[in-house]
Amino acid sequence: MLRLALIVAAVAIAVDQASKAWLIGVMQAHGFQTLPITGFFNLAMVWNEGISFGMLGGAADIMRWVLVSFAVAVALALMVWARRLTSPLMAVAAGLIAGGALGNAVDRVVRGAVADFFDVHVAGYHWPAFNIADAGITVGVAVLVCDALLRRRQDPKLSP
After folding, report:
1. 3-state SS, residue 30
2. 77 closest CA partner among 14, 5, 126
3. What secondary structure letter does DSSP report for 130?
4. Which residues are within 8 A (CB) of 123 and not within 5 positions of it... i.e. 6 or more apart?
């Protein structure tokens, strides 16, 4: 399953970086103004120097390298784990998380911050802007959590 996880991670990184390069160009052509797409979705240029939802943003530059190191460590740990996996779905989840982490790490190294674009909103409330890497991480984690919950329910040794 390691090969599958590596392929998914590589595709996730490539799609994330290609989408960021294209969207930065689109946003630049529009003066970095928010672009309404639907009644609940905009494209908006946000440079995230922190972690999830901008937490720790504005911290010392050393934080950028701490976050890059953490992302690389997580990706490596997931690939070590993927060597022992027997489920293709779990390998895909590991690859999505690793690829997402590394996609955002590339941004931190190359651009100094993570480029976020997708702005989902309802009734004036906005979800924090995100990107393809963030979506990959979220989907990968959701798959792992669902698998853990379903497996626990199916395994009589784990039920109360």
Report:
1. coil
2. 5
3. B
4. none
Token readout for 48 is 């995230």
d(CA 91, CA 3): 9
Q: What pLDDT score was predicted for residue 51?
A: 64
Q: What are phi and psi of 66, to 5 degrees?
A: -65, -45
The model's pLDDT over 29-59, given as tens digits with 9 standing for 90+, comes to: 999 999 999 999 999 999 988 665 455 555 5
Of residues 16, 116, 119, 155, which has the active-site annotation? Answer: 116
- Look up 116 and say whether it is catalytic: yes
Residue linked to tokens 């395994």: 155
d(CA 97, CA 94): 5
User: Which residue from 28, 22, 17 is spatially nearest to 114, judged by alpha carbons?
Assistant: 17
The confidence score (pLDDT) of residue 59 equals 56
The mean pLDDT value for 17-30 works out to 97
**pLDDT tens digits, residue range 97-132?**
999 999 999 999 999 999 999 999 999 898 899 999
Catalytic residue (one of 16, 107, 119, 134): 134
Provide the token pair at 98: 């690793």
